[in-house]
Amino acid sequence: MIDVSVADQLDLFRERFDRIIQEVSRRIVGQDEVVRFTVISLIAGGHVLLEGIPGVGKTSLVRALAEVLNLRFARIQFTPDLMPADIVGTNIVQEQAHGSAFFEFQPGPIFANLVLADEINRATPRTQSALLEAMQDASVTVGKSTYPLEQPFLVLATQNPRDMEGTYPLPEAQLDRFFFKLKVGYPDEAAIHEILSLMGQPMSSVVHVMDGPEILAMRQVARSVPIARPVQDYAVRLALATHPDAPGAPPLVKRYVRYGASPRAAFALVLGGKIHALTRGRAFVSEDDIRAVAFPSLRHRLLLGFEGEVERIDPDALISELVSAR
Amino acid sequence: MSLTSANSSVRRTALLGNRARHSQAANLLVVRLVPWAAAVACSASAIGLLVGGPRLLGPVLLSAIAIAAVSVSMAARFDRRLTDETVAELDRTAGLGGALRSAHWFASHQSVSQGEVSDAWLAFHIERAAAESERVDWAAVYARPSTARAWGATAVLGTVALMIAWESPRRSPLSDVKSEQSDSTVTVIPSHLIGQITEGMKVMQDGGQPSKDVMTAVGQALEIAKNDKAARRELEDLFAQLAQDRERRLLSGSWVDSGQRDDLTLPWDEGTPAPEWAYEEAIAKASVQQPEAAAADPESSSTNEGGSNREREPGLTGSATSDSAAVPADTRGKAGSFSSMLFGRQRANEGEPDALREAVPAAQAALLAALRREVIHARSDVADSNRVPTVRGRPNPPSPPRVGAPAEPARGQPYDVSKAGRPPVVPDARRALLHAFFARVADDAALSSQR
Which contacts of B173-178 are long-range, i.e. CB under 8 A and separated by 24 or more positions? Predict the structure, then answer.
């Protein structure tokens, strides 16, 4: 007989996921896929890099998500003069009542559940690197003290395209720490009409559909989804095929890619596939789920070579070649 | 549904699906190939009927086709080892969204650790996949192709093949035609070529040179015979026929009566018949010399013309002792022995006073001279190319050598047998004469000794 609890978990997961999407979509119009993958990344515990031109709703998306999930939200506007201490916090001198002084750690904005790193590529690489430990280990080290971050912890960074003025490309190590990279495109005509119609109305308040512990519970459910070895092999082969020196790499990858995806990409493919399967009401992962999350999982992990940079090769074209070939 | 039964159900479902898949593939194969195979069998039967091939070829092919079709259909019913690719294809075709593939893998690899995945989730997945896949109608998923048209065509073609095979021993049009052709004489070489070849062969058998038209005709006939067995056979038959005609002509003689032909023997060998040309030449000489002799001796000439009181000429009477016939200018058709005429030369040498006796030896001498000239001609054929020319008068300036011609020996250089070229082929008509000439030396010696 079918395990009812598992079936209930599956239904509950799907219901919650749909509710999140529904509530966020009330504020963000015309970016359904971005919202969907952002929520998937949130459930997976991964960070999201949102890339798009200004004014397409990147910041609004993160803010709406924080409100829907009832999480502690912090926004960091990255500028070229931003210092790492401005992000992670610093020790400041405190004076006690009897006159003695001591250092007290003053947490930075990184100590939140949902951190919006707005225009992250406008800060210097040194400041950008201040996020590395927090994103990877969910902890911050200041001086000799390491401070854990509260879970769920999620960094949603927005960046303008790299060729914009006054931007600093993110280092590869930091790029790899983003679970997904989502391209926030320009909304279509109908979406713009809807946005214009909403502008005259007061900002609608979103409903808190869940909180942090429920997000963590959903994360645990997502990791319980079984994945058959052939499907997992597919994800691994897909990640390995991004390496130009791999035997199964397609010609486009061999020509334009300098470095391929790291093992974190395979992890993102599998975990993202699991959550994608759950959102479809399935308790198993199929190759379709892997393919569905292949683009946001791989596009920021392909480091193009000189020829690819010169010819302005879109990594999505390479991923499309990979997905269609396998 | 327990996990074990769910596992079994998933595996069984996959096997059923794979069986249906193979069955569909086998049916497709059979439906596509069997009508063509039946057409081949029908064609084989038809060809066998036309050219007289094996009678049972069509039925044998039909039987082989039937056996192959049944074998393929039966083989599709056997369960095969399922690979992940096969199950993935089954899953995809049935539209199960990967559930069957994943569940089948887990059902087949239960010992593999799944890390954080609990057994409850595995059981849930497999049981749900089993329930979903059991609802799949594999017969509908892998529907059998429409076979009515294919089997109808196969039935028609097979029936035709069997009917042809049934009819083939009774009637075989091409074989009948062949037998008719083999009975009748088929002329492959054109008749005008046959006529020219026959004429040319006769000329060559008589020692003459055939004309260019004849040689062209022979060449055309040989060209035809090169690629055509019937023409070659016809040509061989023609040559054999001509050879037989020549032998028959030599034996029987077409220019003289058989009774006279028996008497016409060579002077040195009465058993050897004299050739026609020798006879004609001797008679021509005699006809020329006889008027001359008559003019020189009118008496004898008048006596000769009257013939009544002419002394019998042994050479013209058929034998040395016979005196039954006079000697006319032309003895053909008249009584007289040619061989006795030749022998009469010897007696004429003994001193016959009569003018007629003078004429007869002249004919004999002319015959012998003709024979000797013939032999000399043959000898010159042999030695002429290497003979030292006789220098008479002012020598001509040296002419450029002919291409392919043998080197001309220097003047005064003795005859070198080793440099002699290959002698030309002696015509068959002259072989007997040559042989008789050389044999005559011994005969003459014997005669001299007898004398």
Answer: B173/B49, B173/B50, B174/B50, B174/B51, B174/B52, B175/B51, B175/B52, B178/B52
pLDDT in tens, A101-110: 888 888 888 8
Identity of the amino acid at A87:
I
Kindly determine whether residue B128 and residue A2, on different chains, have CB atoms separated by under 8 Å.
yes
B110 near A CB under 8 A: no
Tens-digit pLDDT profile for residues B69-105 = 888 877 777 777 788 888 888 888 888 888 888 888 8
Residue range A67-106, pLDDT digits in tens: 888 888 888 888 888 888 888 888 888 888 787 888 888 8
Helix (H) or strand (E) holding B128: helix B119-134
Q: How many Å lie between the alpha carbon of B1 and the closest alpha carbon of chain A?
A: 4
> What backbone torsions phi and psi does residue B265 show, to the nearest 5 degrees?
-120, 165
CB-based contact B261:B335 (threshold 8 Å): no
Does the CB of B99 have a partner CB in chain A at under 8 Å?
Answer: yes
CB of B302 within 8 Å of a chain A CB? The answer is no
Instruction: Spell out the domains of chain A, with CATH numbers in brackets.
Output: 1-80+110-224 (3.40.50.300), 225-326 (1.10.8.80)
> Which pLDDT score, from 0 to 100, does residue B349 have?
40
Contact (Cβ atoms closer than 8 angstroms) between residue B120 and residue B4:
no
Query: Is the distance from CB of A123 to CB of A80 less than 8 angstroms?
Result: yes
User: Is the CB of B102 less than 8 angstroms away from the CB of A6?
Assistant: no
Report which of residues A115 and B386 the model is more confident about. A115
Question: Per-residue pLDDT for B313 more than 60?
Answer: no
Alpha helices, H only, B314-427: 338-349, 355-383
Asked whether A326 and A233 are in contact (CB, 8 A), the reply is no
Q: Where are the domains of chain B?
A: 3-167, 191-251, 260-383+424-450
Nearest to A223 among B2, B106, B116 (CB): B116
**Per-residue pLDDT at B379 exceeds 80:** no
**pTM for this structure?**
0.58
Which pairing describes strands A114-118 and A154-159: parallel, antiparallel, or unpaired?
parallel
pLDDT of A303:
85
Among candidate residues B104, B135, B110, the one with its CA nearest the CA of residue B14: B104
Instruction: Give the model's pLDDT for residue A272.
Output: 92
Query: Nearest C-alpha of chain A: how many angstroms from B75?
Result: 29
For residue B123, list chain A residues with Cβ-Cβ distance below 8 A: 3, 6
Element (H, E) at B235: helix B229-252
Suggest the residue from A284, A286, A289, A290 to mutate for an interface test with chain B (most B CBs closer than 10 A). Answer: A284
Q: What pLDDT is recorded for position A273?
A: 92
With a cut of 70, say whether residue B52 has pLDDT above it: no
Which tokens belong to A248?
């199964």
Could you report the per-residue pLDDT of A270-307, keeping only the tens digit for each? 999 999 999 988 888 988 899 999 999 988 888 888 88
Count of CB pairs separated by less than 8 Å, A with B: 73
Per-residue pLDDT, B301: 41
A283 and B128: CB-CB below 8 Å?
Answer: yes
| Pairing status of strand A154-159 against strand A47-51 | parallel
pLDDT at B111: 61
Phi, psi of B20 (to 5 degrees): -65, -35
> CB A231 to CB B121 under 8 A?
no
- Would you call A2 and B121 a contact, using CB atoms and an 8 Å cutoff? no
Kindly tell me the burial class for residue B305, based on how many C-beta atoms sit within 10 Å of its own C-beta (0-12, 13-18, 19 or more): middle
Q: Is beta strand A47-51 parallel, antiparallel or unpaired with respect to A178-183?
A: parallel
pLDDT score of B193: 82
Instruction: Please state the ipTM of this predicted complex.
Output: 0.81
Option in B106, B116, B124 nearest A7 (CB):
B124
In angstroms, the separation between the Cα of residue A282 and the nearest Cα of chain B is 8
